[in-house]
Amino acid sequence: MTAALHIQKLTRCFNDLVAVDNISFDIGQGEIFGLLGPNGAGKTTTLSMLATMLTPTSGSAIVNGIDIGKDPDGVRRSIGIVFQDQSLDEELTAYENMDFHGRLYRIPTDTRKQRIEELLKLVELFDRRNDIVKTFSGGMRRRLEIARGLLHHPRVLFLDEPTLGLDPQTRNHLWTYIATLAKDKGITIILTTHYMDEADRLCNRVAIIDHGKIIANDTPKNLRDGLGGDLVTIKSPDPAGVASALNEPWVIRTETHNDEVIISVKNADQYVSAIVTILNEHRVPITSIAISKPTLEDVFLSLTGKTIREQDADSTENMRMHMRMHQKMMRH
Amino acid sequence: MDIVYAIWLRSMKRFVRSKSRIVGSIMMPFFLLLFLGFGLNNVVQIPGLGGNYLVFLIPGMVAMSVMFTGVGSGVQILWDKQFGFLKETLVAPVSRLEIMLGQTAGGATTAVLQGFFIMIPALIIGLKVPDPAGFLVALLFMVLIGIGFTAFGIALASRMEDMTGFQLIMNFVIFPIFGLSGALFPISSLPSWIAPLTLIDPLTYGVEGMRYGLTGVSQINPQACLAVSGGFCIATAVAGAYLFRKIQ
Questions:
Q1: Fewest beta carbons less than 10 Å away: which of A273, B28, B95, B221?
Q2: Tens digit of pLDDT for each residue in A102-161?
Q3: B83: which chain A residues are within 8 Å (Cβ-Cβ)?
Q4: Per-residue b/e over A237-249, b at no fewer than 16 CB within 10 Å?
Q5: How many beta carbons lie within 10 A of that of residue A138, not counting itself?
Q6: B245 touching A, CB under 8 A?
Q7: Contacts of B6 (CB under 8 A, 6+ apart)
Q8: C-alpha distances in angstroms, B25 versus B15, B67, B110, B118, B197?
Q9: Which helix (H) or strand (E) holds B55?
Q10: Least CA distance to B5: which residue of chain A?
Q11: Would you say residue A323 has pLDDT above 70?
C-alpha cells in the first residue's frame, strides 16, 4: 500500500500554545482514516495544515506525493475539503454552488455539467438542484458540500466533523455515503471527529489525538482489543477496596475512575459470580455491576484517564483561559 | 480570466435575486433627489445651470448610488467570511488577485447598474442631456467610481474582523466622502477653509466628471476629473489587492 499522506514531525504553535505537537504518521491510499479527539485537541489545525490553509511552525507533510510547503496549489488541486462550518452560498441554488466550484477548479464546461449531474444524483439532491440552498436542511447541505468537494475528482477528501450537529438518522445516512465513496471511487478519506461511534463504525484506522499529540494509531479493533477483553464496571462507595480485593490472576487490568472500578477480563460472563463472591467475602459494598464490550470511548479513557466529554469541557475551559490571557496581554 | 468571470457571475446572480436590496438602495438617493430637488429648487440658485438645482443634483445622486453600492459590494467579502463561503474560494487553487479582481468586477457592475436605476427616473423628472455623447462620459465616470469604491470596500473589509466596525466606517469615512464631494452643493460655495478638503476627496472628481457629461457644466476641468478618478481606481485596486492577500 502506497502512502497518500506522509506526515512528518508536523507542529503548529499559536503564540505560546502548542496546538499540534510534533505529529508523524502515514495514511494509505483508499483508507478511511479518523482523527479522533476532544474539542481543541488539534484536529482542525492538523487538517488546515494538510489542506495548505495554515503554514506549519515546523515539520512537513506530503499529500498525494506533493509537498505542502513547496507546491500548495498542487496540493489544493488534488484534495477536496468539507469544512466544519458550512461554506455554501445560501442565495445560490445547489446547482449554482456546484457550478461555481467547477469553474474555480477550471473544469471544462461539458465535463463540469456531466459531473455535477452525476454527483447530485449520488447525494440524492438532483431533484432539488434548482432550489436555493437557504431552503435546505442541515443534512442536505452537508451532502451538497460533500458532492462539491468531489467535483474536481480529488484523490484525498478531508471531512472536518462531517456529522456535527446532525440528527442520528442523517448521520447514519452520511456514514453510508462516505463508506460507499471510499469503496467505489478509491478515494482516501481523512475525517476528524469527536464521536467515538463514528470513528468506530467508519474508519479503517484511527489516530487518537489529545493535547496536540497522537497517543494511539491503529485499527479500531486493535485499539479495542488492546484493552485485553471485556470490561466489568463495578460501582461502589469503596472503589479502593474493590481494586485491592480483586487481585486475581484472571484480572488483566484494573482502573479506577471516581467511584467506579473498571477491570478487563476475558469472557467476563463467567466471572461475574466470582466477582460478587470475592467482594462479599471482603465485605466491600457493591452499588452496581455492568459488563460491556470495550468501545473507543474506553480506549480513550484508558489512555488519557478521562472520558472524551470531560476532556472536551477541560479544553474548552483552557481555550477560554488562554483567550482571556491573550486579550489581557494585548491590552497591556 | 475564467476565475474572475466565475466570481463576477456569482455577484450577478446574487444581484438579480436580491430584489429588496435593489429597491432598498435605490430609495435613499431617489428620495433625496425628490425632496431636496423639488424642495430647494426655488430657493437655491446654481450658477451656470439656469438656476436649476434639481438638474444640478441628479449627477450627485447617481454618483452617490454608485459609490454606496460599490462600497457595499466590496464589504460583501465580510459577509462571505461570516457565512463561511469565503473559505470555499480561499482554499481553491486560484490566486488571491483573481478573487479580488472578480469581486471588484462584480461589485462595479452592480454599482453601475444601480446608478442607471437612478438615472431613469431622473430623465423623467427633468434631466436633459445636451449631447448624447455626454451619456458615454457619464458612464465612464460611473465605471471609475464603481471600480474605485468597490476596491476601497474590499481594502476596508480586508482589515476588519467582522461587520461590527462597519457602521463606524460608514459614519466616519463613507458619509464624509459623500458629503464633501459637491454632490449636494457647488464646491465653490463652501467657505475657503473647507475647499481644500473637497479637493482631496476623490468622489468630487467623479461627481464633477458626471456633471460635465450629463449637464455640460462642471467646476473642475473634465480632463483633471478623469485623471484623478482613474488614479483613484488604480490606487484602491492596488491597496485592495495588497490587503486582500493577507486575509485569513
A1: A273
A2: 999 999 999 999 999 999 998 889 999 999 999 999 889 999 999 999 999 999 999 998
A3: 86, 89-90
A4: ebbebbbebbeee
A5: 14
A6: no
A7: A100, A103, A104, B102
A8: 12, 11, 11, 10, 27
A9: helix B53-82
A10: A103
A11: no
Q: What is the DSSP string of B190-204?
A: S-TTTHHHHHH-HHH
Give the ipTM of the model, two decimals please: 0.90
Q: Check: CB of residue B135 under 8 Å from CB of residue B129.
A: yes
Reference A96, options B2, B11, B72, B154; nearest CA is B11
Name the nearest CA neighbour of B25 among B80, B73, B74, B69: B69
> Does A77 sit within 8 Å of B93, measured CB to CB?
yes
- Other Cβ atoms closer than 10 A to B2: 11
Could you report the per-residue pLDDT of A301-314, keeping only the tens digit for each? 888 877 777 777 66
- Tell me which of B2, B10, B19 to substitute to probe the interface with A (most A C-beta atoms closer than 10 Å): B10
Intervals of chain B under pLDDT 70: 47-51
Instruction: Report pTM.
Output: 0.84
As a whole number of Å, the end-to-end CA separation of chain A is 54
CA distance A329 to B216: 59
Give the three-class secondary structure for B146: helix
Instruction: Give chain A positions within 8 Å (CB) of B92.
Output: 76, 101, 104-105
Q: How far apart are CA A112 and CA A89, in angstroms?
A: 19
Cβ(B146)–Cβ(B105) under 8 Å?
no
Q: How far is CA A133 from CA A138, A164, A169, B103, B151, in A?
A: 10, 19, 21, 21, 28
How close is the nearest chain B Cα to the Cα of A286, in Å? 52
- Of the candidates A82, A80, A51, which has an alpha carbon nearest to the alpha carbon of residue A152? A80
